[in-house]
Amino acid sequence: MGNHILLIITGGIAAYKTPELARRLMDAGHTVTPVLSESATQFVTPLALASVSGSKVYGDLFSLTDEHEMGHIRLARDADLVLVAPATANVLAKMAHGEANDLGTTILLATEAPVLVAPAMNWAMWDHAATRDNMHTLESRGVTTIGPVAGDLACGEEGMGRMADIPDIVNAVASTLKATGPLSGTRAIVTSGPTHEPIDPVRYIANRSSGKQGHAIAAALAKLGCDVTLVSGPTVEPTPKAVKLIAVETAVEMMAAVEQSLPADIFVGAAAVADWRASENAPQKIKKDTLGQSQGASEHCEISLTQNPDILKTVATIGATVGGRRPTLVIGFAAETQNVIENARTKLASKGCDWILANDVSSEQDTFGGLDNEIHLVTRASVEDWPRQSKLDVGRKLAGRIADTLANNAKTRAGGGAS
Ligand code: C5P
Questions:
Q1: Mean of the per-residue pLDDT values for the chain?
Q2: Is 258 in the pocket of ligand 1 (CB under 6 A)?
């Protein structure tokens, strides 16, 4: 799950590289809406950009159709990041002075999203005191910069002025998003998927969890700038972008990976951890006849089970039990087939966590492995019923809720300190 990048292309020769830049941004999971300045159209065609990005390409501030379909303010608001590449000396000067006389500069003045510029120009223009001052002004306002780099310039000279290489711009987009999101500077551990508890080399105990919900939560937290470690049992779900994956098989391995990843500010236990494991993991495949014989019956066999560690409870009670820092928010799931809210309330108390996301996993709900989820957010103070929605939307909603809660906590602390 990527971000929405508004790519403003201004009129430098490096503009010819922007279809490739758009493609690489899309490879990184982002969606791209190109906005071309008038002079940029001399170097790259709107058609090339539209074909690559699959998006409408915007250019004329006063196009009535564009304004009708999507006003320039909405373009500015919908972006998660505005990238100006290449950024000419001219657009940098306009940005520094707040000019808004075409679509790109108007968006730059209206947007609240982080802005990243990839300057490209002749080395003397880059060195000029006016450009230096403009860059200083922009950086002091929080605009981030990638490049320029040294090399052959379009004018035939050599020096500092080439637009940064495309992979470096794509990386700068990722780090700018990370550094500016509402959860930047925070760490989260998310567990996801089922666990597989081996009985012998070929057999295991498992459950129907797909990992979709846990992975969606990890992706949504990362999108808000959180540094996310995803500890996942076996799943075919792709690893979300910008998330550190620790792949595990068993509950014991999951517990160890979580402990090794602590401390964190946020813990979300979305994994369907097996409550039990086979007391013995036979080194060789257990033969049908062997089992029958050893237990004195041929049609009946028993596997002895041992309880697995409760990861959620362990994390929620850190401090009380093993010392160390408990995450500020410890969030668990309650997959229930009946009395959903009541059982979730009991679980909240017994696990010692802050929130429980309760969901009905009875077979008619198709939640395990399905694409949608219907959540009841149970806290000590309240129960909130969320409408049935995609697991991706549940992830986004939860991540937003976590960001708001941490921000409110920080405000309260700041307020308390001042009084
Ligand atoms: O106890 P129960 O399995 O119903 O609780 C579900 C919640 O507890 C989920 O958030 C799950 O990830 C977590 N859990 C855990 N370790 C276990 C069992 C459940 O972290 N051994």
A1: 91
A2: no
